Amino acid sequence: MNGACLELEKPIEEAVSRIRFAPKSNHLLISSWDSNLRLYDVDSSALRLEATSEAALLDCCYQNGEVALTAASDGFIRRYDLHSGNNETIGNHDDIATSVGYSDETCQVITAGLDKKIMSWDMRSGKAPVHLTKLGAELESMSLSGFDLMVAIGRSLNMYDLRNLDRHVQSYESHMEVQIRCISPIPYSRGYAVGSVDGRVALESSYPSNSNNRGYIFRCHPRSKDGRFHLVSVNDIVFNPFTPAAFVTGDNEGYATVWDAQSRRRLFEDLRTGRTIGGG
Questions:
Q1: What is the pLDDT along the chain (280 residues), one digit of tens a residue?
Q2: Name one Pfam family in it (predicted).
Q3: Which of 122, 64, 114, 68 is nearest to 93 (CA)?
């Protein structure tokens, strides 16, 4: 398949931690380990904003088209004005903050960290956390879809209802044989995509007993060095809200690759080096 080519201004030199599509525009919000939050206009290939943080950014999300949130290695959750780049702290975890998401349904910021806690912050009532859930293990990744919160711990996936975070309502075991690094809901089906530490992506059904929805696994981020392949962790998976079958993966070396879930083919890459590589 021959795909379009993407070349964005000012390449990312460190690992990509999160890629987010804007809710109503063709903008990409990207956080990375170089402590920068970047906003790209894909239509014009322009860098609209680059905001530097005091710590590595492990996650980011939109609150709306004007405001973004980040989770950082210093444990703090910060809120950014995407016009000025100014930010404010809304709270913090006791250890590294690994994940952040925003729910339109509840107007809550949901966060997780290596302190084994899920916390929620109500943006309508102030900055004090309104709920805290203690987990028995470190949470690797989480994703929000409506009232559903899905979290990845090791190879397990647990589903929570945002209206009652006291206990999970469903639990799944991924087909991955290694640790899950990221998780994302599939917008056009009752399923989810997970990325692993060994460079693979699995598209799986929320109803694994149904043989028609068993999904598939593919290896997406091997890199060749000195004629030998090594495996790079898939840090993020995000689906395009305007073209649901298309999704982007970001890896531990700063690459972003666009895939077609239906044809199971790569469309194009990359954001790291500034090269344009057509899909094969």
A1: 334 445 666 667 777 788 888 888 888 899 988 999 999 988 787 899 999 888 999 999 999 989 999 999 999 999 999 999 899 999 999 999 999 999 999 889 999 989 988 998 888 776 666 677 788 778 778 888 888 888 888 878 888 888 888 888 888 777 777 888 888 888 766 778 888 888 888 887 665 444 444 567 887 766 566 666 667 888 888 887 777 678 888 777 767 788 887 777 787 655 443 332 223 2
A2: WD40
A3: 114
CA-based nearest residue to 99, from 119, 121, 123? 119
Within this chain, do residues 124 and 205 fall inside the same structural domain, yes or no? no
Place of tokens 């804007």: 22
Whether residue 134 is contained in a domain is answered as yes
Query: Which amino acid, one-letter code, is at 171?
Result: S
Give the span between the Cα atoms of 204 and 206, in whole angstroms. Answer: 7
Q: Does the predicted TM-score (pTM) go above 0.85?
A: no
Q: Which two tokens stand for residue 88?
A: 């404010």
Matching residue, tokens 């995509």: 193
Contact 98, 114 (CB under 8 A): yes
Strands 222-225 and 228-231: antiparallel
What total of structural domains would you count in the chain? 2
Q: Is residue 29 part of a domain?
A: yes
What is the rounded distance in angstroms from the CA atom of residue 70 to the CA atom of residue 117?
17
Instruction: Return the closest-CA partner of residue 247 out of 227, 228, 262, 231.
Output: 262
Give the CATH number of the domain where residue 255 resides. Answer: 2.40.128
